[in-house]
Protein backbone atom coordinates (compact mmCIF):
# COMPACT_ATOMS: atom_id res chain seq x y z
CA UNK A 1 0.00 0.00 0.00
CA UNK A 2 2.78 2.41 0.90
CA UNK A 3 4.38 1.90 -2.50
CA UNK A 4 1.09 2.56 -4.26
CA UNK A 5 0.57 5.79 -2.30
CA UNK A 6 4.06 6.97 -3.28
CA UNK A 7 3.43 6.16 -6.95
CA UNK A 8 0.04 7.92 -6.77
CA UNK A 9 1.64 11.04 -5.26
CA UNK A 10 4.36 11.06 -7.93
CA UNK A 11 1.74 10.70 -10.65
CA UNK A 12 -0.21 13.67 -9.26
CA UNK A 13 2.97 15.76 -9.13
CA UNK A 14 3.86 14.87 -12.72
CA UNK A 15 0.33 15.65 -13.87
CA UNK A 16 0.41 19.01 -12.05
CA UNK A 17 3.75 19.85 -13.66
CA UNK A 18 2.40 18.99 -17.10
CA UNK A 19 -0.62 21.22 -16.42
CA UNK A 20 1.60 24.16 -15.47
CA UNK A 21 3.71 23.69 -18.60
CA UNK A 22 0.54 23.56 -20.73
CA UNK A 23 -0.66 26.84 -19.21
CA UNK A 24 2.68 28.53 -19.95
CA UNK A 25 2.69 27.31 -23.56
CA UNK A 26 -0.93 28.37 -24.07
CA UNK A 27 -0.20 31.85 -22.67
CA UNK A 28 2.78 32.30 -25.00
CA UNK A 29 0.75 31.15 -28.03
CA UNK A 30 -2.01 33.64 -27.22
CA UNK A 31 0.58 36.42 -26.87
CA UNK A 32 2.09 35.57 -30.26
CA UNK A 33 -1.36 35.52 -31.88
CA UNK A 34 -2.13 38.98 -30.47
CA UNK A 35 1.18 40.34 -31.76
CA UNK A 36 0.59 38.92 -35.26
CA UNK A 37 -2.96 40.28 -35.35
CA UNK A 38 -1.72 43.71 -34.31
CA UNK A 39 0.84 43.75 -37.14
CA UNK A 40 -1.74 42.57 -39.69
CA UNK A 41 -4.27 45.19 -38.61
CA UNK A 42 -1.76 48.05 -38.99
CA UNK A 43 0.49 47.09 -41.96
CA UNK A 44 1.27 50.71 -42.84
CA UNK A 45 2.28 51.92 -39.40
CA UNK A 46 5.97 52.92 -39.34
CA UNK A 47 8.11 50.56 -37.31
CA UNK A 48 11.63 51.02 -35.97
CA UNK A 49 13.30 48.23 -37.93
CA UNK A 50 16.77 48.40 -39.50
CA UNK A 51 17.10 49.24 -43.18
CA UNK A 52 19.50 47.35 -45.46
CA UNK A 53 22.45 49.15 -43.82
CA UNK A 54 21.34 48.10 -40.32
CA UNK A 55 20.71 51.74 -39.37
CA UNK A 56 17.57 52.03 -37.25
CA UNK A 57 17.29 55.76 -38.01
CA UNK A 58 16.17 54.70 -41.49
CA UNK A 59 13.12 52.83 -40.16
CA UNK A 60 10.37 52.30 -42.68
CA UNK A 61 6.86 50.90 -42.98
CA UNK A 62 5.98 47.25 -42.46
CA UNK A 63 4.73 46.19 -45.92
CA UNK A 64 2.23 43.43 -46.66
CA UNK A 65 3.54 39.90 -47.15
CA UNK A 66 5.56 39.19 -50.30
CA UNK A 67 3.59 37.94 -53.29
CA UNK A 68 6.03 35.23 -54.31
CA UNK A 69 3.50 33.75 -56.75
CA UNK A 70 3.60 36.89 -58.90
CA UNK A 71 5.19 36.56 -62.36
CA UNK A 72 7.02 39.79 -61.43
CA UNK A 73 8.41 38.49 -58.13
CA UNK A 74 11.96 39.13 -59.33
CA UNK A 75 11.41 42.90 -59.73
CA UNK A 76 13.63 45.18 -57.62
CA UNK A 77 14.00 48.95 -57.54
CA UNK A 78 17.32 50.03 -59.06
CA UNK A 79 17.49 53.65 -60.27
CA UNK A 80 15.66 56.77 -61.36
CA UNK A 81 16.64 58.49 -64.63
CA UNK A 82 16.86 62.25 -65.09
CA UNK A 83 17.21 63.80 -68.57
CA UNK A 84 19.44 66.87 -68.56
CA UNK A 85 20.75 69.18 -71.29
CA UNK A 86 24.35 68.63 -70.17
CA UNK A 87 25.77 65.52 -68.51
CA UNK A 88 28.91 67.17 -67.16
CA UNK A 89 26.98 69.98 -65.45
CA UNK A 90 24.56 67.53 -63.85
CA UNK A 91 27.30 65.10 -62.85
CA UNK A 92 29.41 67.86 -61.30
CA UNK A 93 26.40 69.10 -59.32
CA UNK A 94 25.62 65.67 -57.86
CA UNK A 95 29.27 65.05 -56.99
CA UNK A 96 30.08 68.50 -55.55
CA UNK A 97 26.76 69.31 -53.86
CA UNK A 98 25.54 65.87 -52.74
CA UNK A 99 28.83 63.91 -52.58
CA UNK A 100 27.43 61.29 -54.96
CA UNK A 101 29.89 58.80 -56.48
CA UNK A 102 30.18 58.15 -60.22
CA UNK A 103 29.57 54.40 -60.61
CA UNK A 104 29.63 54.02 -64.40
CA UNK A 105 29.60 56.10 -67.60
CA UNK A 106 28.72 55.12 -71.17
CA UNK A 107 27.50 56.45 -74.50
CA UNK A 108 24.24 55.65 -76.26
CA UNK A 109 23.86 57.05 -79.79
CA UNK A 110 24.60 60.77 -79.41
CA UNK A 111 23.87 60.83 -75.67
CA UNK A 112 26.15 60.44 -72.68
CA UNK A 113 24.93 58.63 -69.57
CA UNK A 114 26.14 57.95 -66.04
CA UNK A 115 25.06 56.10 -62.91
CA UNK A 116 25.63 58.00 -59.68
CA UNK A 117 25.17 56.63 -56.14
CA UNK A 118 24.82 58.38 -52.77
CA UNK A 119 27.93 58.64 -50.59
CA UNK A 120 27.33 55.38 -48.65
CA UNK A 121 24.43 53.66 -50.45
CA UNK A 122 25.09 51.02 -53.11
CA UNK A 123 21.41 50.05 -53.51
CA UNK A 124 20.08 53.13 -55.33
CA UNK A 125 21.35 54.99 -58.40
CA UNK A 126 20.46 58.18 -60.20
CA UNK A 127 20.94 57.77 -63.95
CA UNK A 128 21.88 61.02 -65.67
CA UNK A 129 21.12 61.29 -69.39
CA UNK A 130 22.84 64.17 -71.15
CA UNK A 131 23.90 65.30 -74.59
CA UNK A 132 22.00 64.85 -77.82
CA UNK A 133 19.34 67.42 -78.65
CA UNK A 134 16.61 67.11 -76.01
CA UNK A 135 13.32 68.83 -76.68
CA UNK A 136 12.34 71.55 -74.21
CA UNK A 137 11.16 69.81 -71.05
CA UNK A 138 8.04 70.80 -69.19
CA UNK A 139 10.03 71.45 -66.01
CA UNK A 140 9.08 74.63 -64.19
CA UNK A 141 11.20 76.53 -61.65
CA UNK A 142 8.91 75.71 -58.73
CA UNK A 143 8.87 78.23 -55.91
CA UNK A 144 7.04 75.96 -53.47
CA UNK A 145 5.73 72.42 -53.11
CA UNK A 146 2.09 73.41 -53.64
CA UNK A 147 2.89 74.93 -57.04
CA UNK A 148 4.74 71.80 -58.15
CA UNK A 149 1.75 69.55 -57.37
CA UNK A 150 -0.44 71.25 -59.98
CA UNK A 151 1.15 69.39 -62.88
CA UNK A 152 0.80 65.77 -64.00
CA UNK A 153 3.66 63.36 -64.66
CA UNK A 154 6.94 62.66 -62.92
CA UNK A 155 7.39 64.73 -59.77
CA UNK A 156 10.45 63.82 -57.66
CA UNK A 157 12.60 61.10 -56.13
CA UNK A 158 13.29 60.79 -52.41
CA UNK A 159 16.43 60.32 -50.32
CA UNK A 160 16.23 59.08 -46.71
CA UNK A 161 18.42 60.95 -44.21
CA UNK A 162 19.00 60.78 -40.46
CA UNK A 163 18.19 64.50 -40.01
CA UNK A 164 16.32 66.59 -42.56
CA UNK A 165 17.20 69.85 -40.81
CA UNK A 166 20.93 69.11 -40.71
CA UNK A 167 20.89 68.01 -44.36
CA UNK A 168 19.04 71.14 -45.46
CA UNK A 169 21.56 73.35 -43.69
CA UNK A 170 24.46 71.46 -45.30
CA UNK A 171 22.85 71.83 -48.74
CA UNK A 172 22.17 75.52 -48.16
CA UNK A 173 25.82 76.04 -47.20
CA UNK A 174 26.76 74.55 -50.59
CA UNK A 175 24.46 76.90 -52.47
CA UNK A 176 21.70 74.37 -53.24
CA UNK A 177 18.22 75.81 -53.83
CA UNK A 178 15.80 74.76 -51.07
CA UNK A 179 12.28 74.66 -52.52
CA UNK A 180 10.40 73.68 -49.34
CA UNK A 181 11.72 74.11 -45.81
CA UNK A 182 11.48 71.15 -43.40
CA UNK A 183 7.97 70.23 -42.25
CA UNK A 184 6.29 67.27 -40.59
CA UNK A 185 3.75 64.99 -42.26
CA UNK A 186 2.34 63.07 -39.30
CA UNK A 187 0.13 60.86 -41.47
CA UNK A 188 3.27 58.95 -42.49
CA UNK A 189 5.45 59.85 -39.47
CA UNK A 190 7.96 61.74 -41.60
CA UNK A 191 9.80 65.06 -41.56
CA UNK A 192 10.28 66.21 -45.15
CA UNK A 193 11.93 68.91 -47.26
CA UNK A 194 12.43 69.52 -50.99
CA UNK A 195 15.30 70.97 -53.01
CA UNK A 196 16.08 71.05 -56.72
CA UNK A 197 18.95 70.49 -59.12
CA UNK A 198 20.22 73.20 -61.53
CA UNK A 199 17.55 72.18 -64.06
CA UNK A 200 14.59 72.46 -61.68
CA UNK A 201 14.14 68.74 -60.97
CA UNK A 202 12.76 68.18 -57.47
CA UNK A 203 14.43 65.94 -54.88
CA UNK A 204 12.80 65.07 -51.55
CA UNK A 205 14.47 64.48 -48.19
CA UNK A 206 12.73 62.22 -45.65
CA UNK A 207 13.43 61.56 -41.97
CA UNK A 208 11.48 59.00 -39.94
CA UNK A 209 9.98 60.55 -36.82
CA UNK A 210 10.45 58.68 -33.52
UniProtKB/TrEMBL annotation:
Task: Kindly give the PROSITE patterns that the UniProt entry links to this protein.
Answer: VOC
**Keyword Transmembrane helix applies:** no
* GO BP annotations listed: L-methylmalonyl-CoA metabolic process
Give a single Pfam family match.
Answer: Glyoxalase
Its keywords, alphabetically, are:
Dioxygenase, Metal-binding, Oxidoreductase
Q: Ranges for the VOC domain? A: 76-208
Which molecular function term from Gene Ontology is one that the record holds?
Answer: methylmalonyl-CoA epimerase activity
Coiled coil region boundaries: none
Instruction: Check the record and name the InterPro entries matching this protein.
Output: Glyas_Bleomycin-R_OHBP_Dase, Glyas_Fos-R_dOase_dom, MMCE/EMCE_epimerase, VOC_core
Q: What is this protein called?
A: Glyoxalase/bleomycin resistance protein/dioxygenase
Amino acid sequence: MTGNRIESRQFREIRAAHYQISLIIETKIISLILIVEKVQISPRKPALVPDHTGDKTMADFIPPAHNTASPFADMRGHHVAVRTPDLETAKRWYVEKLDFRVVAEWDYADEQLAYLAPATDDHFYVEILGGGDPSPADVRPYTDLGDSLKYAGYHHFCLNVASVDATVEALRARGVTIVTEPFELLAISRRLAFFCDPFGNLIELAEVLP
